[in-house]
Amino acid sequence: MELINIPHNVEAEKALLGCLMLKPKDLYYTMSKVPTDAFYQPVNGIIYGAMKSLLVKNSPIDLVTVTTELRNTKSGVDIDYVTGLMAEVPASTRADYYANIVMKNHTLRNLMTIGYSLIEDTSEANESSDTDKIITKHATQLIGIDGGKKEESDITDAVREFNETQEQFKAKLLDGTTSYIGIPTGFSKIDDIIDGLRPGHMHLIGGFTSSGKTNFMLNIIDNIMSSTKVTLFSLEMSRVDIIARLLGISTGIGPNKILRHEFSEQWELDEYEIAKKRLVDSGLRIYSQTNLLDDIIMSMTRDIVMNKTKVFAIDYAQLVRTRSNNEYEQVSETAQRLQNFARENGVTIIVLSQISNEHAKDQNREVMGFKGGGTLPASADLAIELVNVDNREERAQKLMDKLPFSVNCIVRKNRHGRTGIINFDFSPWNGKFEQSLIN
Fold first, then answer.
1. Are residues 191 and 140 in the same domain?
2. Angular region, 186: left φ>0, alpha ψ -120 to 50, beta rest
3. Model pLDDT for residues 380-418, shown as the tens digit of each residue
4. pTM value?
5. 284 and 425 together in one domain
6. 249 and 384 fall within a common domain
7. Pick from 414, 426, 439: nearest CA to 386
8. What share of the chain is helix, strand, coil (3-state, %, to 5)?
9. Do 370 and 427 belong together in one domain?
10. pLDDT tens profile 197-218
């Protein structure tokens, strides 16, 4: 049987320890990059741990202090081995170079461990096994390999991240595709304010009765799904209803007419076939029977790995269930965990929300009226409210005359930019939102 090669580089591990002995200040950098268990040779991990202990104690790090620490902790490490590290330091004393080699091999070994675990789980599975749980378990482990890295706090790292974002922005300007950092929503006046759907952000959209908040979200999905992988959690409507609405938005034909396949003219049938193919080709994923927060997060994790999803949409926050029976606690936990998930995984999460009854009575008040307390808007990077401009009688008359409703999109909070109001025309018979010519 062919022996399996376990990724490792003992020489790089020794070189790293020797470099740290010569330049102890490099340990500050290495500690943030390399955990103690990253060393393949156990003795090297023990020596590295002794160095870290000395650093915590504000003790100098050299051959004498390290060997003394190893003796005091009864580590069992041969002192001659430690002495030999100094003799084996190569001409280059760049600790970061050897740290990267150590970490790459550590990552490869972790991948191998996940692979063995996957083989073990699948070999013990049968037709009655929950394959979704197996997939999610290992998808989470795979993301954790990269997502578990410690955050860099040095200003040079912060500036580097800033430069990378700036370069992305410049590249988009040069290729002429878009002037926005994030994914364009398809509504230029909104994108001018929010700079598109930015990765690592949670966006909150609330709406009053008949303002069309679900349709507004579906319009954004329709605008981006051909170029961006999207996953939708519909906790209120079935997948069939969602598909009918999306096709209605795309074609301009009413969703009920589409659902019943009642096409009176050939162009309607043609538009329907084109829209349906576009929907299939988009790879959009829709969940309509998942309302537990843990299950939602597991599904999002799986879709990031298997579907490369960049944008998640949840309709709506108040229907998400957690282990608590208290509505306020449920909404708070949902908001905080979704915000953390967006940032840790670099995805955009759009969350719909109900508006509180008190806020509905006075829509002009400055306080945001998302139902479930202040945690929801506080966690969001962006908070939008959709407000009807027409009164109830005007909406009823416009519906009879087949005229669009007037809806204000109010950007009440934008952590990274401007706020403002954009006027929209909303056609309730097909669910389509269009930027008003009068703004």
1. no
2. left
3. 999 999 999 988 899 999 989 989 999 999 998 998 778
4. 0.68
5. yes
6. yes
7. 426
8. 55, 15, 35
9. yes
10. 999 999 999 987 778 999 999 9
Whole-Å CA distances, 351 to 27, 127, 197, 272, 376: 42, 36, 13, 28, 10
Number of domains present in the structure of the chain: 2
> In the chain, what is the straight-line distance between the N-terminal and C-terminal CA atoms, in Å?
74
Buried/exposed code over 311-339 (b: 16+ C-beta within 10 A; e: otherwise): bbbbbbbbbbebeeeeeeebbbbbbebbb
22 found inside a domain: yes
What CATH number is given to the structural domain containing 322? 3.40.50.300
Residue 162 within any structural domain of the chain = no
pLDDT of amino acid 25: 82
Exposure string for 27-59, b = 16+ CB within 10 A, e = fewer: beebbbbbbeebbbeebbbbbbbbbbbbbeeee
Maximum distance among all alpha carbons in the chain? 92
Amino acid letter, 428: P
Q: What is the pLDDT of residue 154?
A: 53
The pairing of strands 420-427 and 285-287 is: unpaired
Q: How far apart are CA 190 and CA 151, in angstroms?
A: 32
Neighbours of 273 (CB within 10 A): 11
Domain C-terminal end among 132, 152, 172? 152
Full domain range(s) for residue 374: 185-435
pLDDT digit string, tens, across residues 172-186: 555 555 567 889 999
167 belongs to a structural domain: no
2 and 76 both lie in a single domain: yes
Q: How confident is the model at residue 1 (pLDDT cuts 50, 70, 90)?
A: very low
- Rg (the chain; Cα; Å): 28
Q: Which residue has the tokens 């509504």?
A: 187
For the chain, what is the total number of helices (H) and then of strands (E)?
A: 18, 9
- Is 357 a residue whose pLDDT tops 60? no
What type of residue sits at position 197?
L
329 falls in which pLDDT band (50, 70, 90)?
confident
Q: What are the backbone angles phi and psi of residue 120, rounded to the nearest 5°?
A: -65, -45
Give strand ranges (E) for 115-223: 202-207
The C-alpha angle with vertex 377 and arms to 225 and 405, in degrees rounded to 5, equals: 60
Find all residues with CB under 8 Å of 328, minimum gap 6, and list them. 372, 373
Distance separating alpha carbons of residues 313 and 286, to the nearest angstrom: 10
Q: What is the DSSP letter of 317?
A: G
**Alpha-carbon 423 to chain mean position:** 29
Closest of 183, 185, 229, 246 to residue 424, by C-alpha: 185
* Strand extents, DSSP E, 360-414: 382-388, 405-414
